[in-house]
Amino acid sequence: MQTVTAPPRPRSGPRFFDQVTDGRDRARAELACTLLAPRASIPPKHFYDRLGSALFAAITELPEYYPTRTEATILSAHRAAIAARVGPGATLVDLGAGDCRKAASMLDALSPAQYVAVDISSAFVAQALEALQREHPALDAIGVGTDFAEALWLPDAVRTARRTFFYPGSSIGNFAPPEACAFLARLRALAGGDGGLLIGVDLAKPASIVVPAYDDALGVTAAFNLNALRNANALIGADFGLADWRHVALLDASASRIEMHLEARRAVTVRWPGAERAFAAGERIHTENSYKYTPESFAALLVDAGWSTTERWIDPKGWFALVHAVPAG
After folding, report:
1. Angle 66-77/79-86 helices, nearest 10 degrees?
2. How far is C-alpha 148 from the chain's CA centre?
3. Domain with CATH 3.40.50.150 in the chain
4. How far apart, in whole angstroms, are the C-alpha atoms of residue 174 and residue 291?
5. pTM here?
6. What topology does CATH give the domain 17-22+62-206+293-327?
7. Would you place residue 19 in the very low, low, confident or very high pLDDT band (cuts 50, 70, 90)?
8. What is the pLDDT of residues 236-276, one digit of tens each?
9. Are the C-beta atoms of 104 and 125 separated by less than 8 Å?
């Protein structure tokens, strides 16, 4: 008798948990403090409203921006080996999921028991997760809106078994190395004894390659950077005029990092309820660092954070690495 396989039972939709709104008062206080610091800054999480997330998605399509396509090549070329390391039935926790495209490209190979999309841009990731659920109706999909760089909050609905943290795109470079170590150690604690880590790492390379990736000819990265000012206006009621500022990207070779800044085109005073700050022409607001590693320096960082590297895949040009690690000991 012929066996008929029933189609997967469609789910009503992904479950979504939003913690971002609950932290807005704390975010306002933090932003006001960083703007008033001797060296003004805006934390990079303020790039990522719905518009900022869409702009970043556009950045990944630019010819200058090599990390996304290089990582995609690695994921495609080593799909079977990656799937063998992770193993089927994992709880796949996608950090900075954004449009969920990277995880979506690996779902069939990885066959996770549960997929968890985590992003600070709640509305953007919720919409992406809805689309992903339609393509994978049987997938147990959960969305989490939270600032995981500050504290990774996972609701009780997220399985504790075999948590594999997927952190692609080299976003670990946004942390200074000591902060990166502390963040990876927190992931180690959440992974338990049977979890894992699959992480993308941008490798050190010449300025002629890396600087244009953060200062493209079309100006998409500039718009992405300036969007932080628009978000600051919305969050604390500031009156930043975007035309008063320009995007700056530079390489600090000694620290092995790209820096992004917003530079005042002219002397300007920015006001918000209860405070103001005068900026001189040429004064900068720091918005992001992106540290670059060697394979050896990142392996050492993982060891310090309690992880043990099991496999490392690097593209032929040596520009980018994808690393799988498991809890040490």
Report:
1. 80
2. 9
3. 17-22+62-206+293-327
4. 6
5. 0.91
6. Rossmann fold (3.40.50)
7. confident
8. 999 999 999 999 999 999 999 999 999 999 999 999 999 99
9. no
